[in-house]
Amino acid sequence: MSGTVQPYPVPHSGQDVGEAKDALRAAIRAEREKRSPRTRARAGVEIAQVVGDLPQVREAGCVAAYVSRPTEPDTLPLLEMLAGRGVRVLLPVLGSGLQRDWAWFTSADDLQVRAPGRPPEPGGPTLGAGALVEAEAIIAPALAVDTGGARLGQGGGWYDRVLAYARPEATVVAMVFPEEVYDAVERPLPRQDHDRTVDIVATPTGWTWVREPEGSGH
Ligand SMILES: Nc1nc2c(c(=O)[nH]1)N(C=O)[C@@H](CNc1ccc(C(=O)N[C@@H](CCC(=O)O)C(=O)O)cc1)CN2
Ligand SMILES: Nc1ncnc2c1ncn2[C@@H]1O[C@H](COP(=O)(O)OP(=O)(O)OP(=O)(O)O)[C@@H](O)[C@H]1O
């Protein structure tokens, strides 16, 4: 057992949804700090298998993904698996602010932290925010996801904004550690109007729909 817990800070009176999100982010980040580099590396290998086997990813010619930061599940095994299959992989580029842009994954060696605190980024030409329309599957980072599709991110609103460029039928897959999947009835994640829901949550141990697939009749 990893010994990690599922934080759910009790909201106090007068706290708004944004503050509740921040309290939860802080608690989940603290749990993430406790995982060893070995656990995180193993999670990366396992989650690559899980996500790589998703039918929506197997069928995709273009996938948008991201380069993990130190406490996130490692995404490099997934990036290399997809590239090895000949899938085109879009990666976030933040530019000087938190601008939303994309560039193609070419190789692990090309990924570099280009500003302190930022995720590693590819060095190739940027393609504009709208390049996301190419992706048939979108793998998004998250701190937590609930079983109703709510996603808690790092708090920049980057994905909430950039998902406006996704094609409507693209499948959005959030990747988290198993303890970060929340029951939408017992422990719903704080949610705001601008929050974009995700379709699938993937962890190193498996994946599940968190939103009814189109045409499921529900
Ligand atoms: N791996 C990864 N890539 C991602 C995201 C993510 O959550 N994880 N994002 C999800 O949306 C976007 C980037 N979001 C970001 C949001 C905030 C900061 C940020 O505040 N950075 C601070 C330093 C923070 C630190 O040191 O930890 C800074 O730039 O000053 C950076 C990226 C796109 N790429
Ligand atoms: N579509 C949007 N348009 C304008 N502002 C937005 C939009 N989405 C998010 N924001 C703003 O971005 C900030 C962070 O949003 P939120 O807390 O939902 O981030 P997050 O989804 O956790 O982060 P990220 O997507 O970067 O991982 C909030 O102040 C919010 O008002």
From TrEMBL:
UniProt xrefs under SUPFAM superfamilies: NagB/RpiA/CoA transferase-like
Positions bound to ATP: 21-25, 151-159
Binding site for substrate: 67, 72
GO MF annotation: an example: ATP binding
GO process annotations (BP): folic acid-containing compound biosynthetic process; tetrahydrofolate interconversion
Root EC class: ligase
Alphabetic keyword roster: ATP-binding, Ligase, Magnesium, Metal-binding, Nucleotide-binding
Pfam families given in the database record: 5-FTHF_cyc-lig
Catalytic reactions of this protein: (6S)-5-formyl-5,6,7,8-tetrahydrofolate + ATP = (6R)-5,10-methenyltetrahydrofolate + ADP + phosphate
Highest taxon above the source species: Bacteria
Transmembrane segments: none
EC number(s) reported in the record: 6.3.3.2
Cofactor: Mg(2+)
UniProt record similarity statement: Belongs to the 5-formyltetrahydrofolate cyclo-ligase family.
Protein name: 5-formyltetrahydrofolate cyclo-ligase
